[in-house]
Structures are given as structure tokens and as C-alpha cells.
Amino acid sequence: MKLKSSYFFTLRENVKDEDSVSGNLLSRSGMIKKNSSGIYMYLPLGYKVLKKIEQIIRKEMNEAGAQEVLMPSLIPEEIYEQSGRRALIGSSMFALKDRFGKPFVLGPTHEELFVMAASHHVKSYKDLPFNLYQFQTKFRDEPRPRFGLIRVREFIMKDAYSFDKDLDGLAISYQKMVDAYKASFDRMGIRYKIVTADTGVMGGLLSEEFQAVTDIGEDRLVLCDRCEFASNIEVSPCVTDEPVLEDLREMSELYTPNVGKIKDLVDNYQISEDKMTKSMIYMIDKQAVLVMVRADDEINEVKLQKLFSAKTVELANNEVVETISHAKIGYAGPIGISTKIIADHRIKTMSNFLIGANKTDVHFQNVNVGRDFQVTQFADIRNIKPGDKCPNCGGKIYFNNGIEIGNTFKLGDKYSKALGLEYLDADNTLHPVVMGSYGIGTGRCLAAIVEQNHDDYGIIWPKALAPYGVAIVVINTKIELQSSSAETLYKILSREGIDVLLDDRDERAGVKFNDMDLIGIPLRITVGKTIDQGKVEVKLRNEKEIQLIDLDQVLPFVQNFLK
RNA sequence: CGGGACGUAGCACAGCUUGGUAGUGCACUUGCUUCGGGAGCAAGGGGUCGCGUGUUCAAAUCACGUCGUCCCGACCA
């Protein structure tokens, strides 16, 4: 492509509305443009990269034996009613009505439609297994779009669905997808971890996430410095040390006016956080429950939800807390409370600690479980922390941020049961089909790659994804020999099927160099003064050195580079 | 949905307190000089000051409303 007569622009300054490196670099390089909150235009360069990402995934999916289809985005609302997900997904679903008043939604994910598609084919066990996938726009009305392309309301997802007769079949289908995902992300040059995660709204038996390791990711990845353990913090189990109890001291009241917060207690009374507990009142399926953890631990709501098999888990509002604890916010505690008390296992290891007294301005000190109060149940309900013991090998835990670029689910029979997708087995009995679902967010891949590959000058695309593998820059377009030589080179490379960018704009050299760096072209060929000796300069985006090569060496050099 | 901020040219912003002819830098056009890492000088083009209502002789500026955007939180497939 020749820049002179193309749609091409770059911005010199950061865009105010973008809060991430990738959002800014992609905007400044003219690849994307925000249109509304969480809704983007893909402009020519950005769309080219997106297509390359799609192509890589498509090839791997096809090799894994999946077949590509395309489902609609406009879907009758009743289909989600049937599967029970209309209420579950709730206001995250864009809803609208047609001219006759019939309710439709814009598809946020497509398990239901794929089940319907499958039901046209599946009658007998002989019709299984198979796998269908699509690249298609999803709509999710996120409460808070963020980080450029990372949390958006309209995005393209590759979603695949496997259909098997039993769990053994699912295991095979699932592994094929995991392998295809690994191959895809490897080819894109993304550094990622596979972590176990919560199944969330999807439900089912197992969820694993492919997390690109970056600074800004929204997810906290729990990793071990010794073994391969990797988990999303929301499901990572915690190991609790054996209790080493001190001699029990006499419990007493401590007058603590206006210090309902942990930090104030630490500051004002010189009590360390591992000698205090945090008691929070939660509404779990609308029932109040007191949840206790050590003061320096965080409560994990996903674990709470699982513990109670609950639909909703939320912090109780202030009024409820004050009614139940008979005190101002900050003074709730387990003694004399009427609710169930769920305590983290770590509470068992504590002695002579501090709790809220359910009385405004008062705490109890030297409290001990068993002697001073009873709990309904001990459970693992806290978040694991850096430095904790690895639940797998006992090694040391550390955290990384991650961007969820892919997710694989073993759904089991959740959707096939809800929607009646059954097959007849060899013994003439009906069984629900066993499903898996597998997603990759292509826009997130793009953002993750930029997050992982950039410097002060701009994006550094991996060769496989760069919008153009090579750029030819003419230093001075007014010098005939430079222009004509560059034009000739452009033709030679193009004729060999190389996608090459010719910067023939009437701009100063600095502008062109900076633009080519910003948009991240991996190889730059500069046609300048040295053309008088029949030589051009060659520079790689990720290296500083410039080498001179003869004109007739350009084609083999480029071919070798792009290989 | 709760808390906070912002909305003035394609982009980034000033002007608003104290109402009186719409500004700056980058980008854009033309000319001259320059020409290998975002040039200089000069002359230009481009704005319903988010939208609405009100106060006023007069509103970018004050008041109220509304829409949008961003940040923190809640939520999150």
C-alpha cells in the first residue's frame, strides 16, 4: 500500500479518554477509534491486524476438526428464558423489541443457539462428536468499560462448542481445543498462563482461562515459584498452617471510640493485624450471615457463593448491619449475634485476638474461639496472598495481573438438559449431549499483544501480526532517484506476494521514522542518500543497528526475514 | 447504581472566579527557507463553546435541567 493516497493518520499526543498503554498506542497509531464508551471503530491498520489474529485462530480451529458457522446477533429473548439465563445475565444484555413488540436481545454469548443448531443434526450416538465455531460480534452492556479494547460492550469473539456423548468424549474434545488455543497464542507471540477459574454465569464442570500476563490486566493470577500451579484468585484454595496457640488470656472490653476501621485500630492501639479479625455481614440469597477472616485477609465472595450454593452474595447495606449488630458500622462481631457465623480456617490458628463487640465504640480483646464464641462453620473463604504456601507443592505464591484472552469450559449437560438436546444411545436409551464451550476475544488478543510488545516509540508487532511486514521509507520524495528506486523496490516485493507499505508521503524523514515506529512495522527499508551507490538501509523495529545492503539483495533479505 | 470530575476546532487544552466581538499548541491550506528522528518564518481555513430552559440590555462564563464522557467503587461471561 502506498501511504500518499491512503487513509492514514497518527496522533502525536496521548488520547485523554484512554487509560491503558494499548488503548493509547492503538488510538495514536490510527488503528482504532473510540466511538462510545466501550465501543470502537477498527480503522484500516487495526482491522488488518485483527484479521491476521482471526486467520491464525481459524487455521488452528480447522486443524482441530471444528467447522465454521455464523449465527445471528439478534436473538429472540425467549431462547434465553428457556435456558434460565435471561435473569442471570440480566441488565448486561442489550434488549430491544421488533415492530410488533416481540422482544429480542443482542447475543452476549451463544450456547443456546448452538444447542439449537446441534439439535437439527443430533439424533443418535453415531452423530457425535463434532465441534462448531464462529467469529461473531457479542454485545454485553458492561457497567464499566475500561482499558481500551479490554473491557468493551461490543466485541468479536471466536466461540466454539463441542458436542459429545459422554464425559470421556468431552475430555478428548476439550483437550483438542486447549491444544488449538495454545498453538494459536504461541503463533501470536503472546506470553500467557492457563489458570483454573470460576465457571460464573456459564455454569458447568470446569473453567480454565488463558491469561495474557501484563501489568494492567483486570484479573489477579496466582502463581507458584516452584511448580506449575496457576489459578485465578477467585478459586485458588488457601493452605492454613497448623494452629500454634498461646496461653489463653482473660477476655475484656476495650473502649475504642470512633475507630471502627482496621487501620485506625492498628494506628491507635498498636495491635497488629494478625491479632484482629474482620467481621462482615453478607446477604447470601437474602439471608444475613456474619463472615469472619483475619484482619489482613480478604473475603473471597466466589468461595462464599460456592459454600452456600447461593445465587447472590453481596455485602449487607449499612442499615442491615447496624440493625443486626446493634452498633454503628465497624463494630460488628461474633459474640451475641443472631446470624450464622462462617469463619475462615485461619481463625482457628489465632488466639487472644480482637473482635467487634456489637456495641458502638467497643471491641473485645483477648478473645478465643470455642471459649468465647462458637462458629457455625469453618471454611476456606479468604483470598490467597503473595508469600502464602502453594496449595499444590508448598512453594511460595506470587501474583501477576492478567488479561483473559481465552476461556474454555466443560459445560457438561447443563444446556442440553435445559434445552432438550438428547441422543439415542446404542442401547436405545436417551441421554443429554455433553458439551464444552471455548471462547477467544480477538480484540483482547490485539490489546494484550500491544501491552506486551511496545517501547517509548510505539508498538512492536510480532512478524506474524504486523499490518505490514515491511515498510519502504523514501527520505526525500523530491529526489527522483530515491522515489523511483523505492517505487521499483515496492513493485518487486509486491510481485512476490509480500504485503509492503510504501511511505511516499512528502514528509520529513523524522516524521516518517516516527510514524513507522509508532505503528510498529517490524522491518524498515530506507531509501536515502546511499541509493547513489545502489544501496539501501535496513533496520529492524526492535533493534538499534542499521545495515546497508545492495538493491538486488533486498528481496532475498526480506523473504528471509519474513520466513 | 453510589461518590467525584469533565464537556470550548480533528487532537490536547486555556478562557469561566469578576458576564461585554472565541483563544493557544499540534494537525490542515498556501508561499519562502529547510530537508536523515515529530523543522522555521509568514499568511490563511476551520467553532451551534454538548443540548435545553431560565436570569440579564448582553451568557462559553451565572442558575436549573438534561445528555454524554472519564475516574473511584459496586458489578463482571
Structure description:
The chain is of the alpha+beta class. It folds into 3 domains: 19-67 and 108-236 and 399-450, 2-Layer Sandwich (BirA Bifunctional Protein, domain 2), CATH 3.30.930.10; 252-379, Alpha-Beta Complex (YbaK protein), CATH 3.90.960; 470-562, Anticodon-binding domain (Rossmann fold). Helix content is 26%, strand content 30%. It contains 14 helices and 31 strands. The strands form 8 sheets. Strands 3, 7, 8, 9, 10, 11, 12, 21 and 24 form a 9-stranded mixed β-sheet that branches. A hairpin with a 2-residue loop joins strand 18 and strand 19. Helix 1 (21-28) packs across helix 11 and helix 2 packs across helix 11 (442-452). The protein is globular, with a radius of gyration of 29 Å. The mean pLDDT is 92. The protein binds one RNA strand of 77 nucleotides through strand 21 and helix 13.
